[in-house]
Design a protein that fits this description.
0% strand; extended
Amino acid sequence: MLEPDLVPDGSVDGITASPSAPGVDEPTGQGAQSRRRVQRTINFDRSVLERARAAATYLSSYEPQAGVRSLADIVNPAVLAYVTELEELYNGGEPFRPVLRMPSGRPANR
């Protein structure tokens, strides 16, 4: 698992960690989206990845009006839309509290 990137202002990937105790709500992070790109390794289902790569390749070559120049142009809006939906469903429409590091591996069965 990759460690978060620290930036000069003391934040992680542009999001400041809250010094408060867990469960205490304090505003953290930035209001506006950062345009800074961060490389991370994630696993995709092979069929999903193949379809997305085919779409990105075709659209970047033949349909410039689609605004898709790379796989990231497909993945970023899709992830943002899903996270927004999850925030609406499970967190009252507010962003989830930022974390410094996600646990590695699969979550334990509960």
